[in-house]
Specification:
Two copies of one chain form a homodimer. With 335 residues, chain A is mostly helical. Chain A has a single domain, classed as Orthogonal Bundle (Farnesyl Diphosphate Synthase). The first copy, chain A, has a two-stranded antiparallel sheet. In chain A, strand 1 and strand 2 form a beta hairpin. In chain A, helix 1 crosses helix 4 and helix 4 packs antiparallel against helix 6. The longest helix of chain A has 30 residues. At the A-B interface, helix 4, helix 6, helix 8 and helix 9 of A face helix 4, helix 6, helix 8 and helix 9 of B.
Chain lengths: 335, 335
């Protein structure tokens, strides 16, 4: 079965379970709160959906690759996706992002106060969804998964804290930056993968191998994203060339350049760089070794992600093959 | 043992466990995030503490009254108090409150974005604390308690949603108002009490009796608070006379008055009422029956709280006596 065919089966099933779970909850007099969550999830009338549901796909494929049933892992998959969406609601407030998935963000439409509260509601709902593992896998696995989920959330907020703190800081160490994306991007994938194994009743070595796989996948993905933000083809990324430099985003290439190149540093501190200057900055980054450094970092994490996957699943069933193909696709985007 | 002596023993023990739990967590590079939480909890240097830790006291007394050990219920008590504090961080953002416990609120000091994130961190930490029940009570009780906790959070956000929605509405039905305070105030006490019973291994009838006790206690407390906000003695409440009328707070007496008295309604819509007009409004409320209505509501919930307590603990041990004395104190404040 091709990855396409696999996704074509899994994604609608995840979507149906997400909708069913939210629909099963009692909102009492607070129907407007349910409306906000429905809107955020991309289910409002006339909406054409949202998100690739990538994280719950990883959960289900990991469960399947361990020989487990999708149905047993579904509460975890639903919990992972709702948790991800809770973080999006609050991230959009924190970053003051007006648009997501082509429509106004929750805080833009309902105000900051209601959006903070709706995020909190979705956080609780994500936990409730995950605790459905009680019925499919029993209390010990459910309690273990709930703990891992909340350790993951703590790592997410640690990463988010650093990301915001960086904006105020003149110098950010590369090591601290890696700690930031470890929380902000990698932590949730480092949960999505092993919780699938947990739900399938896999042994400790498998579960921790899947966590390491997910963490490296998340790191590689984010670093590659950083590279695409500067050297990516606008026709593919859908953003303007070197968009992260224009936005003064302290991504990995920029942080490297700020240390390695005095010329880059000088341009970075220009108030309103024109297009020519931004192009010059991208060239300076390449010249000072930032592009090699970033590529090497991404390659290192990518290699480790594949190594962990091979170690956990030396022989792959259909889901294991699909997981490897998905990893391949995620990590070999064109820079 | 008097209630005073009981509290003098319990509160420092709760405080020590709160500090130990937060201290046990790894914040990695994000020490500033831990600093924010330490500040919020009232543990910063030079701070003289904060909060009465009322909810975890209720949890421990309920556990003790059921014949359980405080130590078994302590993870739940710590979780309840941290959860309460998470809601305070986000409530202060949503209400734009600048001061709590005599010091600047988190968002005033660190900005909205970091405060939203710190609240999220504390939400996760509260869940982790509660899941410590795995070690003291086993996984089935821990998983059950985690589910109840998150249903409680959903009720809290439903209540908070309504409270904010009311500000935009011309007319608020009394029934909808009661649904709001059921979420915003009563839900957490309706969790704090029965989770103590759960941790003590109490039977279903006891656990649901404690939930009903907590819910009625919370409702009675909030309605009494509404009465105190209008007719309370400023020397006792520490607020100006009829402060809730000055602030145009849609509390239960005001909502009753808006329906029952055209004169009250007219004054309510005055742009800048002077002190004399506010006093006249308080009198109009009393004259139109609002005070009797509110008193009757508070009395009804109070009676039910005591009835449930008596039904659950017809014979009381020392903790049961302390719980009854605490309930008495909370519900017989002077209006």
């Amino acid at each position: 079965m091709t990855l396409e065919a696999k996704l074509a089966g899994l994604v609608p099933e995840i979507e149906a379970n997400l909708q069913a779970f939210l629909g099963s909850l009692d909102f009492g007099h607070s129907l407007g709160l349910r409306e906000m969550l429905t809107y955020h999830m991309g289910w409002a009338e006339g909406d054409c959906g949202s998100g690739k549901r990538l994280r719950p796909v990883i959960t289900l494929l990991c469960a399947g690759a361990c020989g487990g049933a999708y149905a047993a892992a579904m509460p975890a998959a639903v919990g992972v996706e709702l948790l991800h969406n809770f973080t999006l609601i609050h991230d959009d407030i924190e970053d003051q992002s007006p648009i997501r998935h082509g429509r106004p963000t929750l805080w833009t439409r309902w105000g900051v106060a209601q959006a903070v509260n709706a995020g909190d509601a979705l956080f609780s709902i994500a936990q409730l969804a995950l605790l459905g593992l009680v019925e499919t896998c029993g209390e010990p696995i459910a309690a273990r998964a709930a703990r891992e989920l909340n350790h993951t959330c703590l790592r997410l907020t640690r990463g988010q804290y650093l990301d915001m703190a960086f904006e105020e800081e003149e110098v950010v160490e590369l090591e601290t930056y890696l700690a930031m994306i470890q929380g902000k991007t990698a932590a949730l994938i480092a949960f999505a993968a092993p919780v699938g194994g947990l739900a399938a009743g896999a042994d400790e070595a498998t579960v921790s191998g899947l966590a390491a796989y997910g963490e490296n996948l998340g790191m590689a993905f984010q670093i590659q994203d950083d590279a695409l933000g500067i050297w990516g083809d606008p026709a593919v990324t859908g953003k303007s060339a070197a968009s992260d430099l224009l936005a003064r985003k302290k991504s990995l290439p920029a942080l490297y350049g700020l240390r390695a190149s005095a010329e880059f540093r000088a341009l970075w501190h220009e108030a309103n760089p024109d297009e020519g200057q931004v192009a010059a900055m991208a060239d300076l980054l390449a010249a000072c070794g930032a592009r090699e450094y970033v590529s090497a970092q991404a390659a290192g994490f990518t290699r480790q992600a594949f190594e962990h996957l091979e170690r956990v699943f030396p022989e792959k069933n259909e889901d294991g093959e699909a997981l490897a193909a998905l990893t391949e696709r995620l990590l070999h985007r064109e820079v």
